[in-house]
Amino acid sequence: MRSLILLALVGLAAQLVDGSLGMAYGVTSTTLLLAIGANPAAASATVHLAEIGTTLASGASHWRFKNVDWKVVARIGIPGAIGAFAGATFLSWLSTEIAKPLMSVLLLGLGVYVLIRFTVRGLRTDRLGQPLRKRFLTPLGLVAGFMDATGGGGWGPVGTPAILASGRLEPRKVVGSIDTSEFFVAIAASAGFLLGLGTAGIDPAWALALLIGGLIAAPIAAWLVRLVPPRVLGSAVGGVIVVTNARTLLSLDSLGLGGGVITTVLALLVLGWIAAVVHSLREHRRAVAEARDEAPEPEEAPALAG
């Protein structure tokens, strides 16, 4: 029961982050399942089963708050589903000994990308309003869908920064469109896992716990996307993913590292993570202050005669 409550809380927290940042539900949830000993393919399958419900609720909530661009959803969701089905089938064929370190490497790479992307570069907004083309969204959807299924998460970490980096869609609509299109990815990935694995290793109670937490958080996250600074949240989430998966890789028996070495490396990573969050917070405050200084002052009302 304690583990189910923990999973529900993780699902809630992950959906809060995912719904406000457009990434990290799958990566965060899969990382936890791997940490408690789940089979990599079964962990990804469990998360994607839960995501069918959470992405549907998240998409509906974002639609209600007008955070969705339906053209983007259609152009990236369909190729994303194709890539996810292929990735799920591929992961189902791998042995556990190969899949676990492979998934940790993928998750670590995604975490590093998210951390650096939001800490160093922030967001680009000088191209807002320009259309996003199929020749950009189609390959992006295929790659992001494949990464999502094989890494247990990746749709948001790949898709959201790529569209944000284009600067052609306002951040809240990027997040809403990515979260909504992920519904198709979750269905396709689940179908691929069920075809490759059957129900072996998939715990329905775990999926239900993640789903309940995600359903509670979905409408809150859709509202928070207008308020939470994406740069700060991106640095925080990226750091969590990096530290957790670095610990998994450093603990592999094949590396033969001692406890002191592992602790030292993890401590350095945590310090770097804290520095990244502090830097992002300072840069966000600086950007807000500059925008306030550049805003034109309101004209004074003329004095009333008499």
TrEMBL record:
Annotated membrane topology: Multi-pass membrane protein
Keywords, alphabetical: Cell membrane, Membrane, Transmembrane, Transmembrane helix
Pfam family membership, one: TauE
Cellular compartments annotated: Cell membrane; Membrane
Any one GO cellular component localisation term in the record: plasma membrane
Record-linked InterPro entries: TM_pro_TauE-like (IPR002781), TSUP/Inactive_protease-like (IPR051598)
TM segment ranges: 72-95, 101-120, 183-200, 206-225, 232-250, 256-278
Family (UniProt): Belongs to the 4-toluene sulfonate uptake permease (TSUP) (TC 2.A.102) family.
Protein name: Probable membrane transporter protein
Organism: Brachybacterium phenoliresistens
